[in-house]
């Protein structure tokens, strides 16, 4: 079985995204804090580690896309996270906003509170928009979660003979 690069990246991304969204929501405050028993410090720690993984994954995707453009590879990658249109473009743009605001929060935390407050606002509101879009995406693509049924090779053979 050949494992496709875009398929692996999609599922890695999904795991990282889910943990980032959960740990992020825990940090928002009492409304979602119960998810991690109000352990905000651990949520912060997890969020920062996974944020680095998320940035690395994004750069891997961008690098892969640049190589494809240089090789004039026009093939559509169905599972790829970034692209020029549709949900791929949406994911690409929202990812860049997450990274830019995330870096501002991280770097300016002890110096520029106005920048941190503004970035936190964008970072948080974007989380709700992207989670809503992911729920819609999962609804549309939920067939991917159904385990393929085993087809009986003998029966299929018999069927084709009787036709
Ligand atoms: C899928 C991507 C991400 C989601 C859904 C997400 C979500 C969140 C949420 C909901 C918060 C809490 C905001 C608040 O308290 O109002 C947060 C905080 C934060 N995020 Fe993200 N985030 C993501 C990616 C990133 C990235 C890529 C970085 C860094 C490069 C980052 C760095 C931070 C930092 C530094 C905080 C503040 C933590 C603190 O209060 O000490 N996030 N994030
Ligand atoms: C359980 C969760 C998920 C399921 C079941 C799922 C399912 C799928 C499937 C089946 C495809 C292939 C599309 C096709 O063949 O037409 C796909 C593509 C894609 N997925 Fe997911 N996905 C999930 C989570 C996510 C998450 C968390 C994100 C991003 C935050 C995401 C972003 C994308 C993008 C950008 C594409 C490419 C879409 C396109 O080509 O238009 N997915 N997903």
From TrEMBL:
One GO-annotated biological process of the protein: respiratory electron transport chain
Coiled coil, from the record: none
Alphabetical UniProt keywords: Cell membrane, Membrane, Transmembrane, Transmembrane helix
A Pfam short name: Ni_hydr_CYTB
Membrane-spanning parts: 7-29, 49-67, 87-107, 127-147
InterPro entries: Cyt_b561_bac/Ni-Hgenase, Di-haem_cyt_TM
GO molecular function, one term: electron transfer activity
Cellular component terms (Gene Ontology): plasma membrane
Protein name as annotated: Cytochrome b subunit of formate dehydrogenase
């Amino acid at each position: 079985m050949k494992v496709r690069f875009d398929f692996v990246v999609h599922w890695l991304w999904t795991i990282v995204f889910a943990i980032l969204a959960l740990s992020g929501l825990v940090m928002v405050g009492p409304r979602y804090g119960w998810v991690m028993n109000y352990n905000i410090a651990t949520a912060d720690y997890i969020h920062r580690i996974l944020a680095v993984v998320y940035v690395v994954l994004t750069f891997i995707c961008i690098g892969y896309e640049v190589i494809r453009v240089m090789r004039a590879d026009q093939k559509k990658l169905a599972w790829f996270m970034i692209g020029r249109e549709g949900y791929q473009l949406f994911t690409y743009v929202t990812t860049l906003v997450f990274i830019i605001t995330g870096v501002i929060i991280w770097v300016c935390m002890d110096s520029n509170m106005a920048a941190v407050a503004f970035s936190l606002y964008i970072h948080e509101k974007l989380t709700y928009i992207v989670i809503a879009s992911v729920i819609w995406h999962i609804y549309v693509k939920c067939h991917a979660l159904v385990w393929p049924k085993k087809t009986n090779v003998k029966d299929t053979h018999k069927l084709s003979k009787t036709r």
